[in-house]
Amino acid sequence: MSAGPRDYGIPGTPIFDGTKAQKGYALNAMCYSFNSADNRAAFKADEDAYCRKFGLSAEQRAAIASRNVKQLLDAGGNIYYLAKFAGIFGLDVQDVGAQQTGMTKDAFKAMLVEAGR
Known about the structure:
Elements: H1 18-23, H2 25-33, H3 37-45, H4 47-53, H5 58-66, H6 69-74, H7 79-87, H8 93-101, H9 105-115
């Protein structure tokens, strides 16, 4: 029996810990497979069949279908592997960060620049 999400004291920040790693194993394995162009093409040809091949849960399949980063993280996704998924659609890590924070990409980039000062 696994415990619920652990509170790490960082409001609004999902932490990828052992519980999330177990929950997201299939999702992250599928995203890792996108290193191969053939696998990316197979996913694009039939997303549902590709998700079933990896044994994704209903929650994970719904998050994939919605392209919602927060849902993908909640479903156990690791941002490193989710970036491979986003790349299929021509999105970069800043696009993903913007979606995760609810900002436009330009606003997210400006926030990063400001934080670096």
